[in-house]
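TOPIC: backbone geometry
CONTENTS: sequence, C-alpha cells:
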Amino acid sequence: MTDAPTKLTSMAVMVLALLNEGDMHPYEMARLLRARRDERLVKVTNGTLYHSVARLLEQGLIAEVGTDRQGNRPERTTYTLTPAGEDAVGDWVRRELPRTDRPAQFRVAIAEAHNLDRSEVIDLLRIRRVALEEQLLLHRTGLGEARERQVPEQFLLEVDRHQVLLEAELRWLDSLLDRFDDDAIPWGHGAVPDSERYRSQRKAAQQ
C-alpha cells in the first residue's frame, strides 16, 4: 500500500479510474463524466479536472503519451495510467470503503469498488457493517435516554434522522452482501461486455 491515496481527491480518483479504461485526453474525460452523470459524485468543472490531471502527472500516477491537434481545435494531450496510478486507485478505494465518517468519499469508493477483487470488497463492506451497527446502537441508546429525560422532540430531529439513515444503509448493505454471496453480481473487468453502447459513448466523448 502506498501513501498516494491520502493525497488524492475524489476527482483525482475518478480521473485515474477513467484512465484504467484506456488512454484519454482531459476533454474526453470531462465528456464521459458528464455523460455518465458522475456529477452526482464529484463536481465536474474544467478547472478542477485539469488541476487534478496536473497533480496526478506531478505525482507520477499518470503519464503523457502524445499530443494531437485536429483542425482548428486546440492541442490535446493524451494521458495513460502508470502502474503507480493503478495501485493508487485500489489503495484509495480500499481505505474509503470501510470508513463511515466520509459519506461523500464512500459514494466514489463504492462506485469504483470494481477495481478491487470481489472477495476483498466483501471483507471491507463487512467491516463497514460492523461500524454502522455500533453507530446505530449508540444512536438508539442515546435517543431513548433523551426521550426518557423528556428532551423536547424538536431538539432530537437530527439524531432521529441519522438513526433512520443508518437503519436504511444497513438494510441496503445486507442486501448487497446477500447478492455477493449468491454470485448475483458479475464482477471484474472480464465480466463487463464490450457493448456497442460503451463504444459509442467513448467515440462521442473523443469528438
User: Anything to note?
Assistant: The first helix runs from residue 10 to 19.
